[in-house]
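Um, can you check?
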Amino acid sequence: MGGSYSPSFTKNGKIWKQKGHLHSHLNQLTGAAHVYHGCELVTFEMVEEEVDTTGIQEYLEYRHGVKVQQEREQADRYESQQTDKRRNLYLSLQQEFGEE
């Protein structure tokens, strides 16, 4: 039996995000309902609930601060790696040529 890979199967089964897509899929199975023998349709309802309100300017400033912090941390990690490389090179040269 053919079919598409979308939506894909998960460990919980096959999930459609819209009822119409499921109905369309099931309509394609005329005479092939045995494919889902023993299966169940489970419907979930997701209720939207407002959990926070933030002004756009405040959010943009926050995101900018996060970005700056991430860039700073990345630069610090890079500098630390470069220092480690230079230290390791120095130690290997010191072992090879000895101290003077």
The radius of gyration is 29 Å. The mean pLDDT is 84. Strands lie at 9-10, 13-14. Helices lie at 19-27, 56-97.
